[in-house]
UniProtKB/TrEMBL annotation:
The organism's place on the tree of life at top rank: Bacteria
A Pfam entry, by short name: Peptidase_M20
Domain Peptidase M20 dimerisation stretches: 204-299
InterPro entries from the UniProt entry: Amidohydrolase, Bact_exopeptidase_dim_dom, Peptidase_M20, Peptidase_M20_dimer
Name of the protein described by the UniProt record: Amidohydrolase
SUPFAM superfamilies according to UniProt: Bacterial exopeptidase dimerisation domain, Zn-dependent exopeptidases
Amino acid sequence: MEYGTLFFWKIEVKMTLVDRIKTEIELNKEDIIKTRRYLHENPEVSSKEFETSKYLKKRCEEIGLIVEEVPGSTGFTALLDTGRPGKTLGIRTDLDGLAIEEDPYNLKGKKQVVSKNPGVSHACGHDSHMTIAIISAKILKDLADEIKGKIYFIFEEAEETGAGIGPMLDHLKDKGLDAVYGNHQSPSLDVGKFSITEGPAYAGCAGLDFDIIGKGGHGSRPDKAVNPLIATAHIITALNSAWNNQLDLEKPVSLGIGVINGGSAANVICDRANVKGTLRFFDLDEGKKALELVKNVADLTAKAHGCSVAFNDYSKIVAEPVINDENLAKEVKKSLKSLYEDALIASPKLWISESFYGYSKLCPSIFINFGTRNEAEGKASDLHTAKFDLDERGIDYGLGLAIKFAIDFLKESDK
């Protein structure tokens, strides 16, 4: 019996870079979820991220990165060196959780995962940022044939208090960074959506914390006391008037009073009251001007009521505005469009603050927002709330952009 000849043709299908990135994310999906949930269950407050740092260092070493300690900090860096000359990129994450007791329920039902540490939770989504840093390092190591130069993965201590940015900048100042990329999840953006701002992106912040000092006495004879509560009330009112008349309307500064404490009994006039709050601004000089205005108004108004004012250490600029480099913002938008074509949406600058501002002192920097909102599943509560929850699918998108931008930035990079 005679058989016909069979021909087998080998067909080589070359995957595009975008396909490779998306495939790698799918292959790492289990690790993405496992990493995020471990971090979410084990949050630590600012400057106490000892176990978090230990876990992340181990992960970096397993990937094959060179871990470098940051003196006096729980923060550290991990270096991916391709061995080929080129640019140096930083990819930054924050480490800390918040002193917020987590509600096991979001806006619609029971959460998939909840903090195991009483009184501490990742209510700002830093667990998702750390997951992006670790998994992007893992995938970029596998895709190192696509890039030249170096990547420093930056694990910053205590973003919420700003305690970690100074030591990290000292550590990085001689590393020859050409750019630093950072991201923040957003419960105001649906999963798969991004906002990328050219120029001012996050507000700067000044803290307010001052005592109004009077003279205590019996509530029956207020004339024999000097009531700091009366002075405090007039200070708040005077500040409202000063804001309308003494600051540049084209350089807005917000004033948020969060705490007024004073007194303990109805028939006792206390001798001291305390006020706490914050200022937010996008123009640093105007922010400094507003802080001095608060001090001046508080001092003069207190004196008019026979009191004095003592400003505490928090009354200072605690964060400068995050100003995105416009050229980098355009590059990231191009990377995003090539990966997720219709993902970019228009978004205003945000009045919250971030220690990421510090990296712009070293090199051009870019800070983007990726969506984790899923209103149907109750994952839409605001940041810093007990019911905060995120849709883990949003991490995939944030991860994809971090990888794609890193490759685009370093692919043909020459110093």
